[in-house]
User: Fold this.
Amino acid sequence: MNIKIVCVGKIKESYFKDAIKEYEKRLSRFCKFEIIEVNEELIDPNLKNLDVVKEKEGERILQKAQGYLIALAINGNNISSEDHAKKINELSIRGISTITYIIGGSYGLGKNVLDKVDYSLSFGKLTYPHQLMRVVLTEQIYRAYTILEGSSYHK
Assistant:
């Protein structure tokens, strides 16, 4: 299985980078894992062009996204780690070879992305910095694979 995360912006904080690297290393025994970063759009200081910003970032995201598309969205499906593992397993059984998770920028995802995804996933009603969300998502993907193999990691 190929697992990709397409996300807006770069991570500058070394502690986020280190955490992601650790889960990438762990994931290497389960799948081919890749994070693809697209550029953030410049934002009008008066926040007048947010829809334009999200649409332009969305265009960049959609150029890189492939396979079964899962958007992280506050209004998405709020599922358990076990259900997330089942979802990955079901997609694999259906012959899906690539799952792409999509994380928007600071202001979320544009309609152009949300209209094209196959599934929307929520990590609750809380708002997270999109850099931290990469760490959380990467860990949850790793957790899903450990659930599927029956590992003691998931308690």
Summary: The radius of gyration is 15 Å. Strands lie at 2-8, 32-38, 68-78, 98-103, 119-122. Residues 2-149 form a domain with the Alpha/beta knot fold (CATH 3.40.1280.10).
